[in-house]
Structure formats: structure tokens, C-alpha cells
UniProtKB/TrEMBL annotation:
Record family assignment: Belongs to the BchN/ChlN family.
GO MF, one annotated term: 4 iron, 4 sulfur cluster binding
Protein's recorded name: Light-independent protochlorophyllide reductase subunit N
Organism the protein comes from: Sulfitobacter sediminilitoris
Keywords: 4Fe-4S, ATP-binding, Bacteriochlorophyll biosynthesis, Chlorophyll biosynthesis, Iron, Iron-sulfur, Metal-binding, Nucleotide-binding, Oxidoreductase, Photosynthesis
Length: 431
């Protein structure tokens, strides 16, 4: 395969100094990942072992499901549980038995800790092993932590997928595994592109059901579709699978580079690659050009939140004409984020971790045209006259691959368009 995308800048950010901060963080809870995972894994149930606060969070984040019984719930910890007065394992066993009796359609049960085990007084790993033995082979029981104390909100998906890897069967087959939850329509577009490139067999983690054929071994190569899957990446490598490092499939350039890495691995010819990608690339470039007009020559500042920050900064600077002032990430993994850092032109401050007060000071001093941050910071910054984009919206909205490239640019353009309209209206009213 020859290079199918724009050349990298003379100086990228992969070797740029990283400002590492370990202070107070402003993050959304890792339990939020359940909201998209329970829709993706169609035979799973997510049982959160947590407080009434956790139950209210899930109900608020997911909305009211009127026409179907939801596939998540909360095993609520009372004061007597937290004080160790009850046998927590017996209480959990009773709850799980009641759930599986009422819901025989459940094939995978995830026990999700809302706090570290030291807080909830319950070893969920032992509980999952015991319950798996009790309900196998009909139901597979796994556990992971969705604690907002320990993670940012996208790491809930990472922990979930990492918990699935050790129980996948061994396989010697030469296969591609695409890792990361995508909306079904986006996943179908991706699989169609890969099929047209002659790549296969292709498996997806998470699969839509437990019955999907999937195995892991030394002949498995995997590509990440989401940049926040560090633990899953490590779990797959421990099983012998090999990672295909590439920029993430955001925009024309990222999608083309991601597909090119896979195509090179599977021997796709340059002619086939061009035949498959030329038309969607033209559509993506046209959509980006139209949607990104308000973004050109504007500055952007990323707070560390979604773990999408580096690939999004690469997309916005190289394809939408923006300049990045600071790109913050909860954590930076060279093997995962390095290819996007190579393409991100030098200039922005790269930061890892967070001391929120210090970062707010830097943001206020920089006065960016657009700030990408969490919900807790957006309203205060808007009150100070700074336009913001909620980081969480970028996870809930289809933004991957060619057909969504224009929509991705439009998500960032919308706050600037709104501010321009409001400013114009205020000027008219003052006249």
C-alpha cells in the first residue's frame, strides 16, 4: 500500500513536552458507558452494585424507557450493607437469582461496581466467578468497575470490554478484530468498506450477542475504533493478538489512514483501495468543507474528558482549519494515540491528567474561540463569554468514518454559529 492520505506535518506532537498534572479532576461518572453498551450488546444486562444516587444517575442519563423493559438496573446498597451488617454476597446472589428468573432472555450479566471494593464491601470478581459456575452455560457473568472515583466516563466501556477478553475462546484463525462500540449504522458502514477492500474475516468487540463467532490468538490482528480502550488493548495483547496502530477514523484523513493500515496488513492493492474509498472520500471532504466554514482560523481548547481529544484535535486542525491551544487527555498511551500525535502540528500544549483549577486559569488566559469540556464546566465558562462544546455529546453522536465526517465538523461549528446569531440579534436590539 502506498500512502493514501495527506503527508504528516514536518513537526508533529508525538515528541512534544507533556504537561502532567495530578490534582482535582472534573469528570463524568464511568457508569455512563452502560447507556450505550446496553443498546449495543443486545442479550446483556448491566447490574450496578451501588447506591440510590447511582440508580438516579442511570435513570436520568438513559431517559424513560416506556416500550421495553430496560437491560440495566441497580442493586442498591443500604447503610447496613456498607456497615458490613449484612452478608453482601448472599444479598447479591438473591438479587441475581430474582433477576434471571424474571428475565430468561439474559445471556450475559455484567456486575458493575459503582465504587471501589473497599467502599462497597464486596468483592465482585469472586461474586462473578461464583455466579458463573451457578448459571453456566446459559448465562455468563462478568464484572468491572464503573467508578467515577477511579475513571473518566469513557473508561467504563474500556473496563467492560477488557473484562470480556479473558473469556473469549482461543483461535488460530487469521482474523481482524475491530474493537469499540459503534452505533449499528456506523458499524454496518465500516463492515461494508472492509468487505469491499477484501478484508476478512472481520469480528467486532463488543458483538451484538454472545452467540457471535469470535476467538483470540496469535493470528488475530486488532484495530481500535475508539481511542479510550487502553485496558482492552493490553488484555488483547496478553492473549497474543497484535495491534494495528493507526490514526482514528474521524474525518477523511483519519478514516483513510485507519483503513489503509488494515488494507496493508491484508494485502489490498492500491487500485482496489482507491476504487473503494475515492467516492466516500470526496463526499466526506465536501461535507467537511461546508460544515467547517465557521471553524476556520478559530482556536480551540480541550479539557481532558472523553479521551477523544487528540484525534479530534488532529481532525479539527488539519481538516477544519482550526488552531489548537491546549489538548488535554485523561491519559496518553503512545501505542494508541501516537499516530494521531504524529499528525497533529506542533503548537498546542499537550497535557495529561488534570488539576482543574490550574487548567481553568490557562483557559481563561487563552480565551479560545471554542472550549471542549465536561458538563460541570460548560455553564460557568459560557457565563464568562466562552463558547463550549460538551465532550459527552461526542461519544453519544455517530461521528466515525466517511459518512459522518460532515456531522462531526458540524458539532463543533454549532456553538460558534449560535454565538454569532446571538451577537447579531443583540446588536440589532440595541440599535
Amino acid at each position: 500500500m502506498t500512502d493514501q492520505f495527506a503527508p504528516p506535518p514536518a513537526l508533529g506532537c508525538r515528541s512534544a513536552p507533556v504537561l502532567k498534572q495530578r490534582g482535582q479532576r472534573e469528570v463524568f461518572c464511568g457508569l455512563t458507558g452502560i447507556i450505550w453498551l446496553h443498546r449495543k450488546i443486545q442479550d446483556a444486562f448491566f447490574l450496578v452494585v451501588g447506591s440510590r444516587t447511582c440508580a438516579h444517575l442511570l435513570q436520568s442519563a438513559a431517559g424513560v424507557m416506556i416500550f421495553a423493559e430496560p437491560r440495566f438496573g441497580t442493586a442498591i446498597l443500604e447503610e447496613s450493607d456498607l456497615a458490613g451488617l449484612n452478608d453482601a454476597h448472599a444479598e447479591l446472589d438473591r438479587t441475581v437469582n430474582e433477576l434471571l428468573t424474571r428475565r430468561p432472555d439474559i445471556r450475559q450479566l455484567f456486575l458493575v461496581g459503582s465504587c471501589p471494593s473497599e467502599v462497597i464491601k464486596l468483592d465482585l470478581s469472586r461474586a462473578a466467578e461464583r455466579l458463573t459456575q451457578q448459571f453456566a452455560p446459559k448465562v455468563r457473568v462478568l464484572e468491572y468497575s464503573g467508578s467515577g472515583i477511579e475513571t473518566t466516563f469513557t473508561q467504563g466501556e474500556d473496563a467492560c470490554l477488557a473484562a470480556m477478553v479473558p473469556v473469549l475462546p482461543a483461535s488460530d484463525a487469521r482474523e481482524l478484530l475491530v474493537v469499540g462500540a459503534l452505533p449499528d449504522v456506523v458499524e454496518d458502514q465500516m463492515l461494508s468498506l472492509l468487505e469491499d477492500l477484501g478484508v476478512g474475516p472481520v469480528r467486532v468487540l463488543p458483538a451484538r450477542s454472545i452467540d457471535a463467532e469470535m476467538g483470540i490468538g496469535e493470528n488475530t490482528v486488532f484495530a481500535l475504533s475508539q481511542p479510550f480502550l487502553g485496558e482492552t488493548h493490553a488484555a488483547l495483547e496478553r492473549r497474543g493478538a497484535r495491534h494495528l496502530a493507526a490514526p482514528f477514523p474521524f474525518g477523511d484523513e483519519g478514516t483513510t489512514a485507519w483503513l489503509a493500515a488494515i488494507a496493508a496488513e491484508f494485502g489490498t492493492s492500491d487500485e482496489t483501495f482507491a476504487q473503494v474509498t475515492d467516492a466516500p472520500r470526496r463526499r466526506a471532504r465536501a461535507a467537511i468543507a461546508q460544515a467547517s466554514e465557521p471553524l476556520r482560523d478559530k482556536s480551540i481548547f480541550f479539557f481532558p474528558d472523553s479521551q477523544l481529544e487528540v484525534p479530534l484535535a488532529r481532525f479539527l486542525t488539519r481538516e477544519c482549519g482550526m488552531s489548537a491551544l491546549e489538548v488535554g487527555m485523561p491519559y496518553i498511551h503512545d501505542g494508541i494515540h501516537g499516530p494521531d500525535l504524529d499528525l497533529l502540528p506542533q503548537g498546542p500544549q499537550i497535557s495529561e491528567g488534570q488539576d482543574v483549577d490550574l487548567q481553568l486559569d490557562r483557559c481563561r488566559a487563552a480565551r479560545p474561540d471554542l472550549t471542549v469540556c465536561g458538563l460541570g464546566l460548560a455553564n460557568p465558562l459560557e457565563a464568562e463569554g466562552l463558547s463550549t462544546k460538551w465532550a459527552i455529546e461526542l461519544v453519544f453522536t455517530p461521528v466515525h468514518f466517511y459518512e459522518q465526517a460532515g456531522d462531526l465538523a458540524a458539532l463543533f461549528a454549532r456553538p460558534l454559529r449560535r454565538k454569532s446569531i446571538l451577537s447579531t440579534s443583540a446588536e440589532v436590539a440595541a440599535e
